[in-house]
Design brief:
The chain is built from five helices and 17 strands. The chain is an alpha+beta fold and 280 residues long. The protein has a domain of 194 residues: Alpha-ketoglutarate-dependent dioxygenase AlkB-like (Jelly Rolls). It has a seven-stranded antiparallel sheet. The N and C termini lie far apart (53 Å). The structure holds 2-oxoglutaric acid and fe (ii) ion. Its main location: nucleus.
Length: 280
């Protein structure tokens, strides 16, 4: 059977793929084909175990070099990754130069990533390719003050996590700007999809994935994917087991039950690249 054509050959009008009211969150379903997904997973799983770094709530592979706050100490991306990053660059037209850093995250069904912002080391456009289990990613307006940010994680990701507890309460320093009307929203990330967020979504919002096996679909902005999720035949027992009717299950409970691993490729550009180790 002929495989569904991926979004690989023609340029995309990214504005056609904007989801939600923020205007700076873009969701492209079927950016890669299922066979490309399998190839990527094969590469990801073939690397030596030492390539994986285990964190408390996920494990990750860092490709492209070490990101410091002042720039990237580069390492060439392998060709199985540039095949994808070049396509993302060409198809979206959103990166001023080739993507040079990829973080591969793997989440078990009860794992996630705390609400955070990606920090100043990166160009403010992020492209996240999703593999395997569907998941929801949450966007939350974050308190404006820099005091609410602190670098956690590690030298690989330069992820800036929100101080826990403070992200739940909306900023009290409301300026009455339209931003304040945008509360928390979620995007359902299906396998093979590409999520892009940039500009305001990058600088004024936190993004995170709940470390829970049950994900609420209540705030999902790309509803058509929820319908797709309903229609998909998941293996027996992979959806919330209240009823055997998938439609009713999601419709009534609006919950997605994670049962398998999710892998993502976070593709970013560090503009400042250090060529010489000793000048760093
Ligand atoms: O796995 C994801 O979709 C999010 C990853 C992320 O936010 C990051 O690597 O900074
Ligand atoms: Fe992130």
């Amino acid at each position: 059977m002929e495989e569904e054509e991926s979004k690989g050959e023609k340029g995309l009008q990214v504005n056609d793929y904007v989801v939600g009211s923020l205007r700076t969150v873009i969701y492209i379903p079927n950016f890669i084909t299922e066979s490309e997904q399998s190839q990527l997973l094969r590469h990801i799983n073939e690397v030596p175990a030492s390539r994986w770094k285990s964190l408390k709530n996920r494990r990750l592979q860092n490709w492209g070099g070490v990101v410091h706050e002042k720039g990237l100490l580069p390492q060439a991306l392998p060709s199985w990754l540039t095949k994808i990053t070049q396509r993302i660059g060409q198809q979206t037209g959103l990166f001023p130069s080739p993507i040079n850093h990829v973080l591969i995250n793997e989440y078990l069904p009860d794992q996630g990533i705390m609400p955070h912002q990606d920090g100043p080391a990166y160009f403010p456009v992020v492209a996240i390719l999703s593999l395997e289990s569907p998941i929801t990613i949450d966007f939350t307006p974050h308190p404006r003050s820099k005091e609410f940010e602190m670098p956690v994680e590690n030298e690989d990701s330069t992820v800036y996590e929100a101080v826990s507890g403070q992200i739940d309460s909306p900023s009290t320093e409301s300026t009455g700007s339209p931003k304040d009307e945008h509360h928390q929203s979620s995007v359902l990330l299906m396998p093979c999809s590409l999520l892009i967020f940039k500009d305001q979504a990058y600088t004024d919002y936190l993004h995170g994935i709940e470390d829970s096996e049950s994900l609420s679909l209540d705030k999902v902005v790309n509803i058509s994917e929820v319908i797709k999720l309903k229609e998909l035949e998941y293996p027996r027992g992979s959806l919330h087991a209240v009823t055997s009717d998938v439609t009713q299950d999601i419709g009534q409970n609006n919950i997605f039950q994670r049962t398998s691993t999710r892998v993502s490729l976070t593709c970013r550009l560090v503009l400042k690249v250090h060529k010489n180790l000793f000048k760093f």
